[in-house]
């Protein structure tokens, strides 16, 4: 599958950017270049835009000096007005973590926690904003792992008018897909006993690998590059998946969407769920 760049403004609530903040930018850039083939274009501030097949796929930046922060991937959703979104987040019992601010010539961003505590970014682009999706080295999917599925669904449905579809049984396996006028955009998983007690709500982001490489070889490559596995490669209805940790501690899922395996009805609620916070 080839990388697909955006050709028109993304509807509100659509994934539009991935960003890695880290205390070890050189090590992370080398790791992802070796793993995903990313090439980087720096700006004057040192912010790096990663490209796959010539299309922007993610941003990487170094945390400013100060107390050390964990290397973290942040997903951004497209909005028309971040100031209005910040107000609505607060009205819906979320919390603004990073106040709306302008990135000159590019747009405005804001980061907030939903009412269950997971952080999510919001991006108001000033111009057409290309974002690689659907191919090797490109964004493939994201799902929210949370302790309160109903509350998370209600928050994002109110914020973006998503429709929800339950794909589990809603009890032993509670996973909803959020759609907008048809297309599936994001997933939401209620964390169960398979997660360590106290695991905080968080987003899991998925980046594609080519069928020629495959997830198994990509996972091996991640280890060779100094990373480690949080979950060995496994089959799913969405593709073959592995969860990796980069050299600085950032957690990301790799997926080969050409390898889809349906889950038998009797296995619903028993499939392993990967916990990036379980060391």
Shape: globular
Average pLDDT metric? 91
The helix content, as a percent range, equals 10-25%
CATH domain topology of the largest domain: 2,3-Dihydroxybiphenyl 1,2-Dioxygenase, domain 1
Number of domains: 2
Considering the protein shown, what is the CATH homologous superfamily of the largest domain? 2,3-Dihydroxybiphenyl 1,2-Dioxygenase, domain 1
InterPro entries: Anthracycline_SecMetBiosynth (IPR052164), Glyas_Bleomycin-R_OHBP_Dase (IPR029068), Glyas_Fos-R_dOase_dom (IPR004360), VOC_core (IPR037523)
Organism: Herbihabitans rhizosphaerae
Protein name: VOC domain-containing protein
Pfam family, one: Glyoxalase
Task: Tell me what the structure shows.
It contains 4 helices and 16 strands. The protein has 279 residues and is of the alpha+beta class. The chain folds into 2 domains: 15-125, 2,3-Dihydroxybiphenyl 1,2-Dioxygenase, domain 1; 139-267, 2,3-Dihydroxybiphenyl 1,2-Dioxygenase, domain 1 (Roll), CATH 3.10.180.10. The strands form 2 sheets. The chain has an 8-stranded mixed β-sheet, with helices on one face. The chain is globular, with a radius of gyration of 18 Å. Residues 266-279 have low confidence and may be disordered.
